Amino acid sequence: MHVSVIGNPGDAVVVTVRGDLDLDSATVLGTTLDRVLDQPAPRVVVDVSGIAFCDSTGLGSFVLGHHRARAAGGWLRVAAPSAWLLALLETVGLTPQVEIYPTVADALATDRDL
């Protein structure tokens, strides 16, 4: 798995994930999210368009990141899931909690701060 971060202080950060997000690799995403969420009112978009596989550990990374961002007065949004990943997020009941957007641009452009 590969994780990259693009952003500027005071602006939304885009975390891009590529590859398999599972028990063996979720710590990489978790560590990255810890770093970008360690600021006042963090605004983070996780680009999941490159995820080939995701297990419950990977899904847990989104939930933990979402809760941590909200607790700090910010948000975490998931963007560009494939059809199978969106179906997985819906099946496990994450879509009511974590905001899902069809594209990174949509996630960055919205004015809603939930």
From TrEMBL:
InterPro entries (alphabetical): Anti-sigma_ant, MlaB-like_STAS, STAS_dom, STAS_dom_sf
GO molecular function, one term: anti-sigma factor antagonist activity
Transmembrane regions listed in the UniProt entry: none
Residue ranges constituting the STAS domain according to the UniProt record: 11-111
Pfam families found in the cross-reference section: STAS_2
Family listed: Belongs to the anti-sigma-factor antagonist family.
Protein name, UniProt field: Anti-sigma factor antagonist
Species assigned in the record: Actinoplanes digitatis
